[in-house]
Amino acid sequence: MDSQQRNGGQRWARDYVFDALSELGIHRIFGVPGTNEIPIIDGTSYPENQVEYIECLHENIAMGAAMGSARMTGKPGVVVVHVTPGIAHGIGNLFNAWRSQAPLVILCCQQQNELVTQEPLLASNLVDLARQYTKWAHEVRTEQELPMVLQRAFKEAMAPPNGPVFVAIPWEFTMRRIGDGDRLPGITRISPHFTADADAIRQAAVMLREAVNPLIVVGDAAGYAEAWPELQALAELIGAPVSLQTFSSLANFPNGDYHWQGELPGGQKDLQKVFAGHDVAFLCGFSNQAQVTVFKYSDGPLIPPSVRQVYLSNNSWDIGKNYYGECALFGDIKATLPLLNREIGDQPSAAARQRNELLRQKADARRVQWDVYLREAMQQQEIWAVVIADALRLEISERQLEKQFVYVHEAVSDPAPFQYLLPFTEEAAAPISYYCVGGGSLGWSMPATLGIKLEAQGCQGIDTRFVVAATGDGSSLFYPQTWWTAQHRQLGVLYIITNNHEYHTLQMGLQQVEAMYGDAAGYGWHARTQDPEYLRIHRPKPDFVALAKAFGGMEGEVVAHPEAVRAAVRRGLDHALAGRAYVLDMQTVGLDQPPPTPQQANARYRNQPRLDCFHAPDGDAQRNTDNGQPANVPVIF
């Protein structure tokens, strides 16, 4: 006899949560158990609710896992957290969700309502903790308002633009009896497929058709809308290079299209150089518009004033947020782009065809440069990221996993090889085949793999047979507890640690700060050393394979030479496809070598071909910043 029958079909207020999940076809709740949450967690033990409780060992892991699940399903990920420390622990990935427009519903079980004013253990003003990173944050006043609040919360998380919602519930409310007929009637769903104003579309079409040298910048809203074909048609019609916003959360444009230029650089002057020379920029779903590390007003705006700006977004906040937009289209990207393309015409102009031919030639040259770079990498004594990315590419192709893989990216020192070589193409993948976040709060990748792998199918026509995460050694140490849940749930994920024994992006950040402020009037700051011990992760070096084994017996190996990478990736993939998680500790610095100086560490990037081949001076395969750093590597402070 199940507990429902034992209790005579009794319902409690917590069952409104399960009414909402049933209405939307959501089958998982993520969290870390706490006493206050037990009434809600208990609801997952009733088979008729068809909801699993996915136990994690840290709230930020639960938050990240729910984000991964939401990305795959397109539905809100649901997290239950424990009072003040619960939401506080989850703030890092809540911030990532906010900046990445990920739909979440966070339920936080507050202490007893009648006791909160007396400041009991763990209680605080929970709404204020969560408010700035949510679309709506609220604490329930009485159990009678739970149906209204839950309906609003799920409606708002799904309404364009998607985003996280926070609801605090005094825990005794969840145990109040309700009648069998007291049920959530449904969840209001707001269609995202609305089109921009017709007059604005015509104005945008004229500006783009008549542009002398147009540029397209694509943000996350385009990837969520599955707008690859419409964007490709637009790029072809106007002959424009396509750049992605820095720290794109998805593959917002297919990398197999010759218009693709990779992500915008993360430096002020480098960003200005990309826009310079373009008379019109089409900013499509461009949400995170200032992903730079150091900025000085005296050096000018990120987008030069000479560039006329055309915006299209389903979020009015992102339209003209930082700069004046001469034309503003407020609408769904996939629904609006066909109307815009139709207004532009069905054939590129002669000038657009010339630009397309130039883009095609530069893309062909870029491929040759990357082949040369890969051959150089294979001759090294340590492992460069391009070798790992190429091994993954070959294995995905040979096993015909093109529509059955998800790559989760947090190898923040090495984004370019993975973004360029893995098959994020219209034939082989979908925008959600690539997972990253727009917030940059470290510790997003390994937790996300849990939620991604738990969902067998992705909402954009892919499945998750092969889930692989590439994560830097510094980022990996944030939440290795993830591996316990992976083993507990028998989730076959391949974890690749790009191990350079340091916080490399911070090493470059130090150099960037000195370059900007070392000789600036009123500053003149210089670090005591360019090679500080506090940015190293050694003495002792963490043993990731031993750590993985400690969290449930996960297997793995250390890989120390480029010639060993392909076979190791093959073994790791075999384990993952068999349902067993596996970790590869890739030594991107020689295993027995002393830690390199910052100058030595940057050597591998010196010959790395730039992704943005359109804006490269002729014959320049690299794109170094003004202070000699590779712009293909973002800096995270």
Automatic annotation (TrEMBL):
Domain Thiamine pyrophosphate enzyme central: 201-338
Entry keywords, A to Z: Thiamine pyrophosphate
Renumbered residue ranges of the record's region Disordered: 615-637
Residue ranges that the Swiss-Prot or TrEMBL entry lists as coiled coil: none
Domain (Thiamine pyrophosphate enzyme TPP-binding): residue spans on this chain: 437-575
InterPro entries in the record: DHS-like_NAD/FAD-binding_dom, THDP-binding, Thiamin_PyroP_enz_cen_dom, Thiamin_PyroP_enz_TPP-bd_dom, TPP_enz, TPP_enzyme_TPP-bd
Keyword flag ATP-binding: no
Domain Thiamine pyrophosphate enzyme N-terminal TPP-binding stretches: 13-118
Family: Belongs to the TPP enzyme family.
Descriptive protein name: Thiamine pyrophosphate-binding protein
Organism the protein comes from: Chromobacterium fluminis
